[in-house]
Structure formats: C-alpha cells, structure tokens
Amino acid sequence: MSRYQVDKVLRETVLDADALARFAAGPAAYLVGRDLSAEERRALMEHDYGALYALGAHPFLLWGWAARVWALRGGDKEQFRDRYAAAVRPHGYPDYAT
Amino acid sequence: MAQLVQLIGVQHNPALHRRFQQPEPSGPARAARDRFADMGRQLAAARPDVLLVVANDHLNQWFMDNMPPFLLGKAPQAQGPFAHERREFGLPAYRAPGDPATARALVEASYDHGLDVAWSDEYTLDHAFVVPLTYLRPAADLPIIPFFSNVMAPPLPPARRFYAVGEALRAAIAALPARLRVAVVASGHLSVEIGGPRVMRAAPDPAFDERAVELIGRGDVDGLLALATWERMQQAGNLTAAFLNFVLLVGLAGGQPATEADAVPLDTSTTPFFSWTLHGETAP
C-alpha cells in the first residue's frame, strides 16, 4: 500500500499544468521510479478513478485530478460528475488517512 | 492590550464566485451574496487594525510530507490564490499586506498560553482564504495574519483541540503588547462532500447543518464538541471536517452565543453566516 505516493502524483498534476500534460502524454514514463503497487500504477495509467478511490486516494485530490484528466482528453464536463459518482459509489467511504 | 472586536464565520466554496458574478443572481445565491455583504459591513464597523484569518489549505502547500496541525503566517505579504485555482474557478487575485511584527508577537504569546503553533514566512493563500476575503474585504486594505489548520489530511486534531486552540488564541491576542483592534474571519464548511458519491449535490446532511447552526447560535460548547466527532462529520460528508474551523472560532469567542447565526441553503451546500460583535466596541 502506497497511498501517500498516489496522493503525491495526484497533487503534482493538479498543481502544475505542465506536469499534467507530461502525465497525460505518457503516464507510464511519468510514473517510472515511483514506489507504487502494480494496481495503483495501473489505475493511475488507465484513469481508473473508481479503483483509486477504493484504494483510499484522497477524495479531494482525486476529484480534482480526475476532472482535469477528463477535460484534457476532451470529455464533456457535464457528464463527468455523474460518471465519477457512479464509479465511486460502490466503494462507499474508504479510509483515506495516510 | 489588544482587543478582539469582531468574529465572523463563513464558507469558502470556490464555485460561489462564479455564482455571485452572474449579472442577476436570484433566490438563494442572491441571499448568500447579500449576507456576505452584511458580514463585510459588520467587519468594517468594528474598525479593525488587523485581520486574523483561520482557514485550511487544500493540500496545495501543506502536504502529507510535512503537515502542521496549526500554522501561523508572519510574512510581509498575504496573497493568493494558486494559479490552478484561478484557472479552474475564475477566482480573482487577492493581495494584502501582512503584519510580521504582530504575527511574531502572537506566536510568542501563543507559546505562553499553551499553543505550540508552527509558523512560516512564505506561503500562498488558497481559495479558503481568498473566497471569504474577496467578499468580506474587497478593498484588501487590512493586514492579514493567516492561521492555517489541517482539516484535510487525517489524522486531525479532535474538536476539543480546535476549541482549545481558539481559546489559546483569544488569550494570546489579549496579551499582545500593542493597542490593536483585532478581527477574525474563520472559513470552513457545514456538511460537504467532494470526490465522494454525493459530490456536488445539495447539502449532504441538512440535519447536521441545522444542528450546527443552532449550537453555535446559543454557544452550546458541549453540544458542539459532541457533534463534531470525526465519525459524525464523515457521515455528514467526506470533507465536513472543515467545520472544525468554526469550532476554533467558537473557542475564540470564549464559548459565547453568536450575535448572529443563520444559513442560506444553496444547491451545492448550506452556506452559514456566524458573527460575534464583542464588547460593544464598535461604537465610534
């Protein structure tokens, strides 16, 4: 479990538009050398915010990150909230303390 | 010798700014904007020399690599928000002076009153500061001493610590050597959820909101501490712990009933307005 390392990636890419662009252009390369589990790495690379939520990523960071990646990929902003809510709902309220 | 003259508690939803900027806001948005303006007038009437602002950074600068539970800012400037917040929420810049001498004296007085507060000489005010300040003091002419709390990254200090920190600040302000009129703005939330299943819906827990406003209105400290447990706040909404900033504010008020405590229900959350006009000191 490396929840802190996941939060660190989410925060970097929320704060810094260049970091977000680098991440979006090549997520695998962006994550090289990070101390992440295989599942965390996969979920970040595949923009699987439901899985990241279930793993205990910080919900505030996750929401900001997921929305930015969604927008960068040309996703419709109005659809995002409902898709996000549907993806996290099955997981209830996981502990997000590090 | 410094005097606490006015305490105000409001929320900091960054989406409020766009709502309030619409040409003709109506209904609850208009009511909320008008209440912000009322609070701004109360702040002005108190004629403060300096403004202590209690709010929480949103993992923008204080992060899990080095997380202070409570941190006081003593830089010569107070400005924000972060570039990504300006882009995302269309927030305006806010630039005000700091007050390093008073801030340093407040740190020293805090140590004398049981509060080992962290401090910093460099920071940015995030939207939790900028949203209230934009509407309460648009002139940005008052020196700002920011007081950052951690309500974002658990483990958090419990409610009784937030209350005790408010009490310690109250004593520390009274012990400041300068003759200053000090006002406080606390920026928090009632029930709120971001990044959970109830994200951006109407207030996730109206019963929590109603109870919280009632308890603060009548200065029921025991009731407030019983309400503001981690478990109850999580049940109310996953980021409801920002309510703890209001618990700190009640400590600053010494547990007195609020002069005004009410709330406007918006479609995103319930927007509270708390104020304490202290000692009748606002008369000219």
Description of the molecule:
- The complex is a heterodimer of chains A (98) and B (284).
- Chain A is mostly helical and 98 residues long.
- Chain A has one domain (3-91): Protocatechuate 4,5-dioxygenase, Chain A, CATH 1.10.700.
- Chain A has helices at 3-15, 17-25, 27-30, 38-45, 49-54, 59-72, 77-88.
- In chain A, α1 crosses α2 (17-25), α1 crosses α6 (59-72) and α6 packs across α7 (77-88).
- The model of chain A has no long low-confidence stretch (mean pLDDT 95).
- Chain B has helices at 16-21, 27-45, 83-89, 100-112, 127-136, 159-174, 206-218, 221-227, 230-236, 244-252; strands at residues 3-11, 50-55, 70-73, 77-80, 94-97, 118-120, 144-149, 181-188, 260-265, 270-277.
- In chain B, α4 (100-112) crosses α6 and α6 runs parallel beside α10.
- Chain B is globular and about 45 Å long.
- In chain B, β9 (260-265) and β10 form a beta hairpin.
- Chain B has one domain: Protocatechuate 4,5-dioxygenase, Chain B (3-Layer(aba) Sandwich), CATH 3.40.830.10.
- With 284 residues, chain B is α/β, with parallel strands linked by helices.
- Mean pLDDT of chain B is 95; it is low at 280-284.
- The chains are: A mainly alpha (98), B alpha/beta (284).
Spatial arrangement of strands, main beta sheet of chain B: 6-3-7-2-8-1-10-9
Q: State the domain count of chain B.
A: 1
Number of helices of chain B: 10
Helix content of chain B: 25-40%
- Largest interface, C-beta within 8 A: A-B, 26 and 24 residues
> How would you sum up the major sheet of chain B?
8 strands, mixed
Radius of gyration of chain B: 17 Å
- The sequence of SSEs of chain A as H and E is HHHHHHH
Rounded radius of gyration of chain A (Å): 12 Å
Whole-number mean pLDDT of chain B: 95
Under CATH at level 1, the class of chain A stands as: Mainly Alpha
Which oligomeric form is depicted?
Answer: heterodimer
